[in-house]
Amino acid sequence: MFQVIGGRSVQAARLLAPRSAVLVEAVRGRKSRTDPVAKSKEGRIKVPPPVDPVEMVVLKERYSEYELIMRALRLEFKEEVLRKKYEEEMGSQAEERARQEEEEHRALMDWNNQENLRILKARILRIQKEEEEAERKKMDAAIQQEQEQQEFIRQKEKEILQLQEEAKNFITVENLDQRIEEALDNPKNYNFAIDKEGKVVKRTVLQ
Predict the structure, then answer these.
(1) Tens of pLDDT, residues 68-86
(2) Residue 16's pLDDT is what?
């Protein structure tokens, strides 16, 4: 049988108990769900302590700041640990990779400078060609305008010469009698009919 002991008799019972005996110490544990409420706590209503709203807002702000700071510190420490671990593991490979990246960057910068220089020269040539083309078009326009002006002058001179030639046959006070006599000597009949083709088909006889 099990022997249950408790209180101050535990040490004495252990010393006096035979080797074959099993001692079970009584331990006070939590109440089970089916145990009733203690008489001293019957009718007691638990009321939470009052909370100051201003204090709660301040605590929430400080706790948010605390979380942000702690998260930043954790990330910083984690990054430092990972960097040290990476440097210890990679070592010379990291240095070689950094050197290769530096050489590649230098080569790319040289190529970029050469490309910029090439594009600059091409742009300068293009601008020069555009300026020469604009100058040529301007000269062509000026030449064409000069030729048109010369043609206009020649046309007007021709018209003037033609008018001067026609002016010789104008009727003036000096040749009025002569022109009347010529008209009487050479009468012209304008009373005639023409067909669709413009040919004279009928003419009246002058009286």
Answers:
(1) 999 999 999 999 999 888 7
(2) 57
Q: Is the pLDDT of residue 24 over 70?
A: no
Structure tokens at 61: 């702000």
Inform me whether the pLDDT recorded for 156 exceeds 60: yes
Whether 17 contacts 3, CB under 8 Å: yes
Query: How far, in Å, are 4, 13, 14, 17, 19 from residue 7 at the CA level?
Result: 11, 11, 12, 16, 21
Which tokens hold the place of 147?
């030729």
**Burial of 13 per CB tally in 10 Å (0-12, 13-18, 19+):** middle
Q: How far apart are CA 125 and CA 175, in angstroms?
A: 75
Question: What is residue 4's three-state secondary structure?
Answer: strand
Q: For 157-172, what is each residue's pLDDT tens digit?
A: 999 998 888 887 787 8
**DSSP codes of every residue in 140-201:** HHHHHHHHHHHHHHHHHHHHHHHHHHHHTTS--SSSHHHHHHHHHHS-----EEE-TTS-EE
Bridge partners of residue 61, in order along the sequence: none
Burial of 5 (0-12, 13-18, 19+ CB in 10 A): middle
- Bridging pattern class, strands 192-194 and 200-203: antiparallel
pLDDT at 123: 95
